[in-house]
Design a protein that fits this description.
3 helices, alpha+beta, 16 strands, 5-stranded antiparallel beta sheet
Length: 211
Amino acid sequence: MIRHTKIFFSFLFMMIFCCCQNSNQKPAHVFITPLPNREDMSAYINAAFPALFNVKDINFSNGTLTFTLYSEDLYDAAAIDKLQSGDTLLYNQDTLLVQKVSNANGTVIINDDIENGGACLEVHDQDSYRAVQLDNHSVYSKKEVVTLPLSPLFTIMDCGEFPTDATKIIRQNQEEYLQGLPEYRQTFTFLDTRVMVNNGQVTHIVRSWIP
């Protein structure tokens, strides 16, 4: 009888110990980073890449363009939907400790939004969220510097200085056009510029007006 009593109390002690352990156990936290690039960066076939370059990076003598390629920061939707206080997020090249999360109509607001040192993520597709910065621009990450040949049909499509200006389509005398731009417009950025590539050749540089 005494032996059975000891076994019973030992079992009871273990149950209480396990319950205390479970009640004291803190929720597991995760570190969420942007998804890998969906494009095959080695192929450069039929794609439009956010790019950063200067007029000097276009070598008309050799027929090449050297540019820094960027990628839009996207996050796994399943991971973002489970985001909780205590998790961390790599956002705009910085590590953000999540303290508060709200979700309204497909927009996830972290730590009271961008203006307050937080973050904003919007639904991109059914599998991902898009990192957003001010003026609703996407957040981009630098990937690599590449040099590609210009297509024989290479065309520049350039916006004007004002939103009402018509887009200029330049197929001839492109070097003269670029050299004649004001200095501040001789830099093309990943926010407003797309380098369009087909079969490994640059077919278009497209710059759009943005606020």
